[in-house]
Amino acid sequence: MLVKIVTLFLVFMVVMGAVQRWINPKRKIGKRDQTRLGRPRKCPECGRFLIGTGTCTCKN
Ligand SMILES: [Zn+2]
Q1: Which residues have CB less than 5 Å away from ligand 1 (the ion)?
Q2: How far is the CA of 19 from the centre of ligand 1 (A)?
Q3: In 3-state terms, the chain is what percent helix, strand and coil (to 5)?
Q4: What is the mean pLDDT of residues 28-32?
Q5: I need a labelling partner for 8 at 20 to 30 A (CA). Which of 23, 43, 44, 52 fits?
Q6: Which of 50, 30, 47 is nearest to 39 (CA)?
Q7: What percent of the chain is predicted at pLDDT more than 70?
């Protein structure tokens, strides 16, 4: 019984993933986007991490 529930849950997850890919294929996060988001940018002047707009406070 428990195995059947787990199997149904897995099938449900796969179906939901397929439906979401089908609804917005452009919004899916690919491997390239993950690496782009995961790579932190640093200020070339002071070396601090740039968050948000990308302008560092050391230049003000
Ligand atoms: Zn800086």
Answers
A1: 43, 45-46, 56, 58
A2: 44
A3: 55, 5, 40
A4: 56
A5: 23
A6: 50
A7: 68
